[in-house]
TrEMBL record, chain B:
The keyword Ion transport does not apply. This is Branched-chain amino acid ABC transporter permease. Coiled coil: none annotated. Signal peptide: none annotated.
Length: 111, 254
């Protein structure tokens, strides 16, 4: 069955689209009832923020694909240098991103 | 326009009442030429390389990009399809990887809606665009917009950036034969660094900043201890600790 051309699309619709959007819909149903200044929303924001931060450190520490072949210390150093540059230059995101990229590429070429 | 002078002085705030939804949707769509859009595109260009290496067809790659629209979930699904996982196993893995979208959507909705006027179906449509990049961008930029403008702006932004990334993913799938590791690696690093900087910029409350720091530290720990459920635990433990900690600290210092 898994040989037929349409099977991956069934996987994408059921295991991809439904399995993902169901959480967004639940979020709408719950979030629609909350007031913007409610205490519980401050907590939910903190939970969502910590969760996204978890995604970040996972992407840096346990990357998939090509980044996995770079040394761990180099990835951490590049990200930290980029973030410090971001803070130093009036929190300009583009500065942080470019500095981190430069640090990664230069470091990678030197190693 | 009846107040052209004010338009040039402060177009965002003064003319909120006179601007239509279409105007705000267009303004949102214009943000598809922006740093977050470029970075997300770069991340998806990197993904196109991965999809091609994994043996996915162009149609499958594009269907995933448009229908799932959350890169970590897409990567999980790619692994499941190419690894020959069953439909149920794949659905559970993707659902676990996507739980994070719920608290993010919950946090965004009160900011998007106009009480008594916004319909739930409108929010359900808008929610499809909730993914880390659009969420961080919205949390950072929506508060400075008039309330009526936020939903059309977000729909315009989400629709614009999705279409743009969709096209660029397809183009790069066709063009990229074999990317040098250093280029692909640099593309993959863009996303976490962009998230770090803009998430910090979007944190208005000290509880948000504390949650971000805790999440960065707890994420890898839970990834090792409870793989699969790690993001959920990172969010719940880190977020709750940050919330209670900042609340307790405020009480003491008062």
């Amino acid at each position: 069955m898994s040989e037929s051309w349409w099977w991956p699309y069934v996987m994408i619709v059921v295991a991809g689209w439904l399995a993902t959007d169901i959480w967004r819909w639940l979020g709408v149903i719950v979030g629609n009832r909350l007031r913007e200044d409610s205490e519980i929303l401050i907590w939910v924001r903190a939970v969502a923020t910590a969760l996204v931060a978890g995604v970040i450190s996972r992407l840096i520490l346990f990357p998939t694909g090509a980044l996995a072949s770079s040394p761990l210390a180099l990835r951490i150093a590049a990200a930290v240098i980029g973030f410090v540059a971001f803070l130093y230059f009036k929190q300009r995101v583009v500065v942080g991103v470019l500095v981190a990229e430069a640090a990664l590429v230069v470091g990678w070429l030197l190693i | 326009m009846s107040r052209p002078k004010q338009d040039t002085i402060d177009p965002q705030v003064r003319t909120a009442e006179t601007k239509s939804s279409a105007y705000w949707a267009l303004r949102g769509a214009r943000a598809m030429v922006s740093i977050p859009a470029m970075i997300l595109t770069a991340a998806f260009v990197g993904y196109a390389g991965l999809a091609r290496e994994s043996g996915l067809s162009l149609g499958e790659t594009l269907a995933m990009t448009g229908m799932v629209w959350a890169l970590p979930s897409i990567v999980v699904l790619t692994g499941a399809i190419t690894g020959g996982a069953s439909l149920l196993t794949a659905a559970v893995a993707v659902a676990l990887a996507s739980v994070r979208l719920m608290p993010m959507t919950v946090a965004l909705m009160p900011m998007l809606k106009v009480d008594g006027r916004t319909k739930r179906w409108q929010l359900l449509i808008a929610s499809h665009f909730v993914a880390v990049t659009a969420w961080v961008y919205a949390m950072k930029n929506l508060p400075s917009l008039p309330r009526e403008a936020r939903l059309p702006f977000f729909l315009g932004f989400g629709g614009g950036i999705t279409s743009f990334v969709f096209v660029m993913t397809g183009v790069s799938y066709l063009l990229i034969e074999d990317m040098p590791a250093i280029v692909a690696g640099a593309l993959f690093l863009l996303t976490p660094v962009y998230f770090t900087c803009s998430l910090w910029g979007a944190s208005r409350l000290s509880s948000d900043k504390a949650a971000m720091i805790l999440g960065l530290v707890l994420g890898p720990i839970f990834f090792v201890v409870v793989p699969g459920l790690d993001l959920l635990w990172t969010g719940l433990a880190g977020g709750t600790a940050a919330y209670l900690g900042v609340k307790g600290y405020g009480r003491y210092s008062r």
